[in-house]
Design goal:
The chain is mostly beta strands. Helices cover 15% and strands 37% of the residues. It has 4 domains: 117 residues, Thrombin, subunit H; 83 residues, Baseplate protein-like domains (Phage tail protein beta-alpha-beta fold, 3-Layer(bab) Sandwich), CATH 3.55.50; 74 residues; 65 residues. The strands form 4 sheets. It has a 15-stranded mixed beta sheet that branches. The chain has a 3-stranded mixed beta sheet with strand order 11-14-13, with no helix packed on it. The chain starts with a strand and ends with a strand.
């Protein structure tokens, strides 16, 4: 077997390389045992699959099979994709960090041992850790300070804050004993119009402000050109059921002197979902009731996001490509299929840890604004 010098390559170089015909593209997969982001054992060959669902609480899932046992109680697994870049060099591409949940041991008739592990991304730590005492956050406290305090209390220090904010709580917040730390953090992030927590390819926890999907900018391009990794098979669906045209939100905070209300009505005659086109109102029921919002401007911004994400007709597409190991959270992809064109927001993806495997993508875009 050839020996390659392995190193990190720029994303652009990796994207260019995976366009090579499959017969000329050498790739292989291994798994590295890690603990708190540090390697603790030998790199071993592995097979299996990984998947990602952007709107799930625990977004990354892996099923991994290997022929070596580790201490599953305190070992995390980081799958690695190795991609030959030249005659002597290969790219070393982490694919996230996963916490084993259900290791299964098997031995075949030849005495060959293997362990198959169901594993989940590092948000599992926060989902399993809860308050051991009630927690009071006073009005005026920094949202980011409260969030990082909870992260550190769960022994998570490998955190990337992509967007800073000086937002502070307008009223006191109290959480009961036993409340999951992931639930609390995501509640606080919703107050300031941030994404729920997610992890990156290195297993780091990411804090990032919400941004509406772009209709023109994209992270990856998949078209039907000769050098494309897009496959022909594709499916397309649209969901029209129970799509509201009136959105209502009220504040749910006893410390406010006056209850705030926000209403957004789609009365655009050009929209088939509008009150005008359908000749009736379909109102969100029950009203949205965020706990931490204390100003009219914040409530209006909150509801605008809800209306954008929940009140549109979405075109959903599922398509396949060669494996692109650089996908992450809600990537924008341009799809140039003979039947479907446009920029889509990717909500799910998955691929096998197998050379020459195919990657399945699910993405969506609003077709009515």
């Amino acid at each position: 077997m050839a020996i390659f010098v392995e190193k990190r390559y720029p994303n652009a170089a990796i994207l260019e390389r995976i366009k090579a015909p499959q017969g000329h593209l050498k790739q292989w997969f291994t798994c590295v045992p890690v603990q708190n982001g540090r390697r603790i054992g030998p790199e071993v060959a592995c097979t299996g699959s990984i998947s990602y669902s952007s709107f799930a609480d625990i977004k990354g899932t892996a099923s991994i099979t290997l022929h070596q046992e580790f201490n599953w109680l305190n070992t995390e697994l980081m799958p690695i994709m190795h991609l030959q870049m030249s005659a002597t060099e290969a790219a070393y591409i982490p694919l996230g960090t996963y916490i084993p949940s259900t290791p299964e041991y098997q031995m075949d008739e030849n005495g060959e041992e293997r362990w198959t592990i169901k594993a989940y991304d590092r948000l599992t730590i926060l989902n399993e850790d809860g308050l051991t005492a009630s927690w009071h956050i006073p009005a005026g406290a920094s949202y980011l300070d409260a969030i990082t305090t909870l992260l550190f209390s769960a022994n998570i220090s490998d955190v990337v804050i992509r967007d800073q904010t000086d937002a502070t709580l307008g009223v006191d917040r109290d959480y009961e004993i036993g409340t999951r730390k992931l639930t609390i953090i995501n509640d606080l992030l919703t107050d300031i119009n941030y994404y729920a927590l997610f992890t990156d390819l290195y297993g780091q926890i990411v804090i990032q402000a919400y941004a509406p999907p772009s209709t023109t900018q994209y992270d990856f391009l998949y078209d039907d050109k000769n050098s494309s990794i897009l496959r022909r098979a594709i499916s397309d669906s649209r969901d029209y059921l129970n799509k509201p045209n009136v959105f209502v939100a009220i504040t749910n905070n006893p410390d406010l002197d006056v209850q705030l209300t926000s209403v957004i009505t789609n009365d655009n005659p050009a929209s088939p979902l509008s009150t005008v086109a359908r000749n009736r109102k379909i109102v969100t029921n029950p009203p949205y009731s965020p706990e931490g919002i204390t100003t009219q401007a914040a409530l209006d911004a909150y509801l605008r996001r809800i209306a954008f994400e929940s009140g549109e007709i979405y075109q959903h597409v599922t398509f396949t490509t060669a494996i692109n190991p650089l996908h992450g959270h809600l990537n924008n992809v341009f799809l140039g299929h003979p039947k479907i064109h446009g920029v889509f927001s990717e909500t799910e993806w998955s691929f096998p840890l197998e050379p020459g495997g195919l990657m399945t993508h699910t993405a969506r875009k609003a077709v009515i604004i």
